[in-house]
Design brief:
By secondary structure, the chain is α+β, with helices and mostly antiparallel strands. It contains four helices and twelve strands; from the N terminus they run βββαββββαααβββββ. The protein binds biotin.
């Protein structure tokens, strides 16, 4: 069961560092503030203290399941939890961002090390507009800037973990195919002009292996990973 045991620190460098191979599958670490929060591709993840859901989960996926797919599984869980809290649709911007109303409200980071995967999820919950970073590639939002309400972070965490527990069990048993219905329907990039490193074209879909299919002048290219730049 994802969520137990739980280690909570009022403040830490990064919840990603609070878990390791000695922990059982499903163990989580949470905090109210990170002093060195980690984002994808060596970037940081910053939040004002006490405003966010910041959680890492220790997972031991079966060897036949590609660990990078876990960032999509985590993204779907975060999107569903955010939708339940807001009553609004959320999308996944491949490979790891959760978007509402064209703003990034959550990010996911899957780090594999020492035979385990630490899946980190950060959700912007109660930040006011001026508490959000202004210089991000994708405009940041919080649940509060979207609906004007202050949300209960513990309740959102519970909902996130319950959803992730179910999705992870399905993914373990059946791979991305088993969660595809929840993922494909939330594809933010579908139909948008995108470029990922050297590949430019129109995003077609996230395929059943978790790759982004891009339709280019010379055919469809399947991109395994990378940084997406998209047009509005
Ligand atoms: C990204 O969008 O680049 C991924 C951000 C992931 C942030 C979360 S917050 C909880 C966990 N601890 C970290 O240091 N990072 C992840």
């Amino acid at each position: 069961m994802i969520g137990s045991p739980r280690r909570h620190e009022p403040e830490c460098e990064s919840t990603q560092l609070l878990l390791g191979p000695g922990d059982p599958e499903g163990a989580i670490a949470t905090t109210d503030h990170q002093t060195a929060g980690r984002g994808r591709r060596g970037r940081g993840w910053v939040e004002a203290p006490g405003t966010s859901v910041l959680v890492s989960v220790l997972l031991r996926p079966p060897s036949e399941r590609p660990a990078p797919q876990l960032s999509l599984v985590g993204g779907v869980a975060a999107a569903i939890a955010v939708e339940d809290a807001l009553g609004l649709a959320a999308q996944i911007k491949w490979p790891n961002d959760v978007m509402v109303a064209r703003r990034k409200v959550a990010g996911v980071l899957a780090e594999a090390r020492d035979g385990v995967v630490v899946l980190g999820i950060g959700i912007n919950v109660n930040q006011t507009r001026d508490q959000l970073p202004a210089d991000t590639r994708v405009a940041a939002g919080s649940l509060r800037t979207i609906d004007g309400r202050v949300h209960d972070r513990e309740r959102l965490l519970d909902s996130l973990l319950g959803t992730l527990d179910g999705l992870y069990a399905r993914w373990r048993a059946g791979g991305l195919d088993a969660v595809y219905e929840d993922l494909g329907a939330r594809d933010f990039l579908r139909g948008r002009r995108v470029s990922v490193d050297e590949v430019a074209g129109t995003a077609q879909m996230i395929d059943r292996e978790g790759r982004l299919l891009i339709s280019t002048g010379s055919g469809v290219v399947a991109v395994e990973s990378g940084e997406v730049v998209f047009e509005r």
